[in-house]
């Protein structure tokens, strides 16, 4: 991976963190909900869903190639972030 790619990946993770914070605000601490926010990166709609078991958030911008992530806790109730930026399609829910 080139230095430039690494920087882009770093920025992408920063955007994802930011978007995830917005989703959390929008969900207001509720679990098992899904909704839509304005994508902080491109301004279109970004869909998200909060896991009912551990509050982890999945999110995907409607613009292809924009923000998309899966947050995975290591165990139930664990909020440790393991952010996987991915280009896979589909929802794990
Ligand atoms: Zn976007």
Sequence stretches where pLDDT stays below 50 over 5 or more residues: 76-93
Q: Which ions, cofactors or small ligands are bound in this entry?
A: zinc ion
Q: Approximately how much beta-strand content do the residues carry?
A: 15-25%
* Whole-number mean pLDDT: 82
Helix content: 25-40%
Number of helices: 1
Largest sheet: 5 strands, antiparallel
Inertia-based shape:
globular
Encode the helix/strand succession as letters. HEEEEE
Strand order of the largest sheet: 1-2-3-4-5
Q: What is the first-to-last residue Cα distance? A: 31 Å
Number of strands: 5
Structure class: alpha+beta
Radius of gyration, in Å, reads 13 Å
Total tally of structural domains: 1
